[in-house]
Amino acid sequence: MALWRYPTIPTSEITPESLYRERRQFMKQSAGLALAAALPSMVTAAENPIKLPDWKQQLASVPASPFSSDEPLTDERTITTYNNFFEFGTRKRDPSDWGHYLKTDPWLVKVEGEVARPGVYDLNELIRPEWLEERIYRLRCVEAWSMVIPWSGFQLSELLKRLEPTSRAKYVVFETLYDPQQFPGQKQETIRWPYTEGLRMDEAMNPLTLMAVGLYGKPLPNQNGAPLRLVVPWKYGFKSIKSIVTIRLQEHQPVSSWQQLAPREYGFYANVNPQVSHPRWSQASERRLGKSGRQATLMFNGYAEQVAHLYKGMDLEKNY
Ligand SMILES: Nc1nc2c(c(=O)[nH]1)N[C@H]1C(S)=C(S)[C@@H](COP(=O)(O)O)O[C@H]1N2
Ligand SMILES: [Mo]
């Protein structure tokens, strides 16, 4: 028997998506009532020895974003056991098998470069509970599969505004934690660590760009990039960098990890584009995990209306 296979999420905590939707609907309707009913029980809450930071407790009841997709959700088990997170290894099961090695509390985020408010922030100082909302987004991996994921998080633009970028800030760069003690996959040079990603300033400020801290109404599981990850729904999944410890604003375009590893296959933009093939396979269609058959991949992953204007006049075959 393999002793190392701790499931990170106990089976009892996995929520079927139908139940999840019902519960969310119920909560919306009864939010007012629940608040009143909660008052007498505040004594018990105060006695609760497990004191989570405020924002973690709120995740189950944050408002639903109008940007949410209404497609059926991918079930929680698939979202939390079929992962790409090379810091834990290259197999889809590695992140859920090894995720428990990562300690996410406390979590410090270094903000540097072209900002008026650089510094090392505790994650709990960085998050404003009133920013939080739930956004159901499609995630399209460059490997031609996709999922529909209920994230909880906040618009990156809110955070950036608070950090006050200078006029020279043209790009935002993100880095994942480098610590081979917690990330066994970093003992191999599969990619050049730390995992690095970047966005042009207008992409970062677009209202669709999300910083996720939760999934299915709970704090992010480690395998999904706890405690803080980027989600850019119109780009291939690899842009959505996990377990972020550095946010840097700078004037020049950064080189992202996949671009550095295979520049002919992965570009800086990585916009979902069914018309531009990967050199080794087509991007025209995708397999929606949990569903049979394939479906057509949509331009910008279906978010063209909100983001196509960002790339006006650019040759998307060259800027892949
Ligand atoms: N730090 C880091 N972030 C990462 C990756 C990774 O290996 N390391 N994989 C990326 C890829 S290829 C995809 S498809 C998504 C997968 O996110 P999920 O496992 O939460 O579905 O995470 C992205 N973010
Ligand atoms: Mo991916």
Core attributes:
single chain; 320 residues; alpha+beta; Sulfite Oxidase, Chain A, domain 2; 7-stranded mixed beta sheet; 5-stranded mixed beta sheet; 10 helices; 22% helix; 20% strand; globular; disordered N terminus; binds the ligand Nc1nc2c(c(=O)[nH]1)N[C@H]1C(S)=C(S)[C@@H](COP(=O)(O)O)O[C@H]1N2; binds molybdenum atom
Description:
- By secondary structure, the chain is an alpha+beta fold.
- The chain has a single domain (11-311), classed as Oxidoreductase, molybdopterin-binding domain (Sulfite Oxidase, Chain A, domain 2), CATH 3.90.420.
- The protein contains 10 helices and 12 strands.
- It has helices at 17-38, 42-47, 54-58, 76-81, 94-98, 123-126, 156-163, 201-205, 257-261, 304-307, and strands at residues 108-113, 119-122, 133-140, 145-155, 171-176, 196-200, 210-215, 218-219, 229-231, 244-250, 285-288, 295-296.
- Strands 3, 4, 7, 8, 9, 11 and 12 form a 7-stranded mixed sheet that branches. The chain has a 5-stranded mixed sheet with strand order 2-1-10-5-6.
- The longest helix has 22 residues, at 17-38.
- The N and C termini lie far apart (45 Å).
- It binds the ligand Nc1nc2c(c(=O)[nH]1)N[C@H]1C(S)=C(S)[C@@H](COP(=O)(O)O)O[C@H]1N2 and molybdenum atom.
- Residues 83-87, 139, 141, 176, 195, 224-225, 237-238, 240-243 line the site of the ligand Nc1nc2c(c(=O)[nH]1)N[C@H]1C(S)=C(S)[C@@H](COP(=O)(O)O)O[C@H]1N2.
- The ligand Nc1nc2c(c(=O)[nH]1)N[C@H]1C(S)=C(S)[C@@H](COP(=O)(O)O)O[C@H]1N2 binds next to loops.
